[in-house]
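Example record

One chain of 330 residues, shown exactly as stored in the release files.
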Amino acid sequence: MDLIAALQTSLAQLVGPSAIFYALLAIGLNLHFGYTGLLNFGQIGFALLGGYGVGIMSVKYDLPLWAGSIIGVVAAGVLALVLGLPTLRLRADYLAIVTIAASEILRLIFRSTSTDSVTGSTNGLFGYADGFYSLSPFDNGKQYSFLGIKFQGSDLWSMVIGWILVALLCLFVFLLVRSPWGRVLKAVREDEDAARSVGKNAYFYKMQALVLGGCIGGLAGVFNALQTQSINPDFYSTAQTFFAYGALILGGAATVFGPVLGAMLFWFLLSIPDVLLRQATSGDNPILDLSQQQVGAIRYVLLGLAIALMMVFRPQGILGNKREVQLDAK
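Predicted structure tokens for this chain:
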């Protein structure tokens, strides 16, 4: 087995576009779950609106990409507002139920044949990102190599923009959580009744956090739509939200850089066994007698075990503080 090739492929995933997308999703979830104690199980629904905001506005209405991006992020914020209004005064599990249901309903609506003229139904939308890649200083069709790690020019451009976006959002979150607003969020997470007793409107602060995290989720969808140059509703499944939660758990909730580190490790740990198992099952005399479908399933099993062990021995994640994840979820 070629360990060097496996490591090179995994390092490409460590900093690649997928890690950026899930880092953005996890940053939004971190505002919800890590800093405010909100159980949002439908983060991918916000990303869906962000992505389709770009695609629909560009393909169907011939608007520039920047306008579609703004519309997508605003639509994600409006969805968060609509979902939060009836649920944030209730127990934490109501928000979890409503968000996961809303994200699945949106996915089914956008893949429905009745919306084909707008969303492209199961075929999705494509051919709208030329303006984004025309700004690239790289040759989009050329392959670049760094220490044996290979990237397409188009991927390099999306990675540059994506990591700049992640860095700016980390700075934004850093400043937010160290402001009086951020300290109130933590107070609400720790003990909502105590926060109310000193005159803080917990509902108002939770709503702000939900909308802000939803907008960041929409921004993740915008990035993914531009990077992949296509949108398909079946990609926006509930599993993607739980992948983002896995990244958040790995890196550490209620930390600024935890979601980013977690997303990078998530794809690195997912890629290593995948490449090694595919090497072990290929050739005329394979080491393991496994189908490609079984390999795909086993890599998730191994990653799930790693996250389970993390929850047992270090529930706060790599960068987290154990006290920060002891929530008062009522």
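Notes: The chain has a mean pLDDT of 92.
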